[in-house]
Each structure stands twice: as C-alpha cells, then as structure tokens.
Amino acid sequence: MYGGASSSDQIHHQQQKQKQQRQQRNPSPEKPTESQTTRTTTAQSTISAREREMSPADLCLARGPNGPPTYDRFGYELDYKKIARASRRPRVPRAKRYEEWQAREDREEARKADIMGGPDKNQRSAMTFMLWDDRVSRDLGIPYHKIELRHFEEWWQAGFRAKREEFIATNVPKEACDSVTDLATGSTFRK
C-alpha cells in the first residue's frame, strides 16, 4: 500500500458514483411516510371489517353490478339484479294477475306431487317442497336453486322414484330438515 486507495476501495467508489448517476437520471418515487402507510392500512382494514359485518346480499348491493362477485356461505355466486329487484318497493299485485299466478303455482304443485308420489295435500308443508327440490337436485346433480318443474319430469323419466312417506316433515330427521332449510335460505338470489 503506497499511501493511495486500494483497488477494492476504487471499485466501491466507482459503484457508488454509478448508482448516484442512475438515481439522478431515474429518480425513484418518494416513499410514503410512516403516518401515510398507517392511515392507508387502517382504512383498508376498516373497509374489510365493514364488509365482514355485512350480509352477502348487502355486500353484493354495496359492490354494485360491476363490482367483484359475491358468494354466499355455500359458495354460490349471488346475482346482483335479483337482489336489487327484491330490495325495491314491491308492486301491488293486480287481482287477475295474482289469480293467474296462483293457478299456475297450484298446477305445478299438483304435478310435482304426482311425480313425487305424495303426500296428500293436507300433509304437505313448505318443508315438503324443499325436500322434493333437494331430492331432485341431488339425484340429477343440478344446483338446488336451479330446480324447476321440467327437472321433476326429467327425474321421473330417468327412472327415479320416491316413497310416499319420505317427504312428510314429521318423518324427516331434524338434521336433514336443518340442512335443507340452510340450503334453501337465500337461494332465490343465486345465479
């Protein structure tokens, strides 16, 4: 060492100089201060905490028609249009339209009862209809919320049959009733 800088010092000095020149040509964006990052993080956690408190239907409405998809607790995607339509003020049904709708519902109910083999009209309940839909859904592999009368026809043509007593609510175990009720809850809002 002759009183001058060593070769490693010279290399280090050159690297530092090149780094400074690069930074002058391409300045890096300013880093946010600690208070700015804390504020952003707090705002993001507030939004997600608020979203966690909302029901899936409310969250879907809050996100809007072009927002990210919203799913219910069973993993089905919710339909914004169906939820928005249900949250509006209902129209007053006209007597003739209501009577037509009721007649159509009665015909469908009677046809489903013929296909499923019972129970008598005085033994049917909302649980009976949910159990019918669940049975057809499982046998045909179609999501519960998409079952229609035509699926009952397909079920019958596929050779499936049910026992008459199987769908009377008093004969069904409580666990089965609970699971069908859970599955049916909110199913009208699913895509």
Description:
This protein is elongated. Among the domains are: 42-90, no CATH class; 107-184, no CATH class. It starts with 6 loop residues before the first helix and ends in a 7-residue tail after the last helix. The chain has helices at residues 7-25, 34-53, 56-63, 80-87, 95-116, 126-140, 149-157, 174-184. Helix 5 runs parallel beside helix 7, helix 6 (126-140) crosses helix 7 (149-157) and helix 6 (126-140) crosses helix 8 (174-184). It contains eight helices and no strands. With 191 residues, it is mainly α.
Our count of helices gives 8
Share of residues in helices: 55-70%
Q: Mean pLDDT, as a whole number? A: 78
Coarse shape:
elongated
- The topology string of helices and strands comes to HHHHHHHH
Count of extended strands: 0
Largest sheet: none
Radius of gyration: 32 Å
Derived from helix and strand composition plus strand pairing, the structural class reads: mainly alpha
- How far apart lie the N and C ends? 80 Å
Task: Work out the strand percent.
Answer: under 5%
